Amino acid sequence: MEIRPQAVVIPKETDHLEQGKYGPVYPRTPACYGFTIIADVKPGRAEAIRGYGYTLATALESDPDLLAPLKLHYLRWVLFDDDKRFMYQGIFDTDFDKYTEDAIALFTRAGVNTVFENLEGFPEDWKTNPEAFVKFVREHHCPSFIEYGEYPYVSADEIKKALKVKSALSEMLDQLQ
Residue 26: CB partners within 8 Å, gap ≥ 6? Predict the structure, then answer.
């Protein structure tokens, strides 16, 4: 199996895209699915956002599979412009609609809030009003126009499986020596 890096240009116009439950479904790219959200931070809430990052990291130490339903590859949070703006980048294996519904279900089931509550305009009723959650995300989404994958179209589960096979093979070869 040859793995060849690939890039895909994503058109600015979305009229031609399939319509999902919550709007256009962006195509899967060599980097899988994802979105970038940029929003204004509520005054005085930057430290709460940083604190939420620590809380999430600690929760993942206790339960590494906490975010597994989201099928994430990567998650990146950035505060910028003197902590007045927040960027959320997620790369995942499901489409936008499923990711959003899974995120709401995950946080509701776990009884935790979302970092987005610290952002201007985020709906207070997001746990019971997925449409408002989606509206916020769509309004603050900054679509990429090109995405590249060194190992294109490979899911996080496939990557983890390959790493397990590699580890098992290395261990077997070590035992033969």
Answer: 10, 14, 17, 33, 35, 95, 96, 143
- The model's pLDDT over 101-137, given as tens digits with 9 standing for 90+, comes to 899 888 887 777 889 999 999 999 998 898 999 999 9
The one-letter amino acid at 17: L
Distances (CA, A) of 28 to 18, 35, 86, 118, 153: 12, 11, 25, 30, 8
pLDDT of residue 137: 93
CA 98 to chain centre: 11
- b/e per residue, 154-165, with b = 16+ CB within 10 A? bebeeeeeeeee
Assigned CATH topology for domain 6-175: Alpha-Beta Plaits (3.30.70)
Closest CA to 89 of 11, 143, 127: 143
Q: What's the rounded Cα separation, in Å, for the pair 157 and 69?
A: 11
Q: Are 70 and 98 in contact (CB under 8 A)?
A: no
Q: CA angle, corner 92, sides to 99 and 34, nearest 5?
A: 80
Sign, CA dihedral 85-12-30-156, equals positive
Query: Is the whole-model pTM more than 0.90?
Result: no
**Number of CB atoms found within 10 A of residue 145's CB:** 10
